[in-house]
Design brief:
- Helices cover 50% and strands 8% of the residues.
- With 119 residues, the protein is mostly helical.
- It has a three-stranded antiparallel β-sheet with strand order 1-3-2.
- α1 (16-27) crosses α2 and α1 (16-27) crosses α4.
- The chain is globular.
Length: 119
């Protein structure tokens, strides 16, 4: 896939939807509803991704080579009717670079006194 050959840094910054989907899939393979629930729980309800937004994002992220469809897990609460998604190595690299970008931004905010003292 041509998109997968791009430098991961070329995708940054990610949209909040992209970031939270990658974050959810970094934890485990999931179906769409599971991703929505993971985002809601992780953000204590501050971020909610609706089905239209989510499935459009998932389609684009598959096209970009960040995620791929996968088989359902062999254990746990599995619904064979659902499509499950897995973070690719390339997607992991994109997520890692975004995490570093965000960490640098938080560090900058600390330095200028927006988040407390400099460590």
């Amino acid at each position: 896939m041509a998109a997968a050959r791009k430098n991961p840094a070329d995708w940054l910054p990610l949209s909040p939807t992209q970031w939270y989907v990658l974050l959810a899939l970094a934890e485990s393979d999931m179906h769409g509803y599971g991703i929505m629930q993971s985002v809601k729980a992780r953000t204590e309800g501050r971020v909610r991704i609706g089905p239209g937004t989510l499935y459009s994002a998932l389609d684009r992220m598959i096209e970009y080579g960040w995620i791929e469809e996968c088989d359902p897990p062999e254990h746990g609460d599995v619904d064979a009717r659902r499509r499950y998604y897995h973070l690719t190595q390339y997607g992991t690299r994109v997520a890692e670079m975004e995490a570093q970008r965000l960490a640098n931004s938080v560090q900058d905010a600390r330095i200028v006194g927006l988040l407390g003292s400099h460590p």
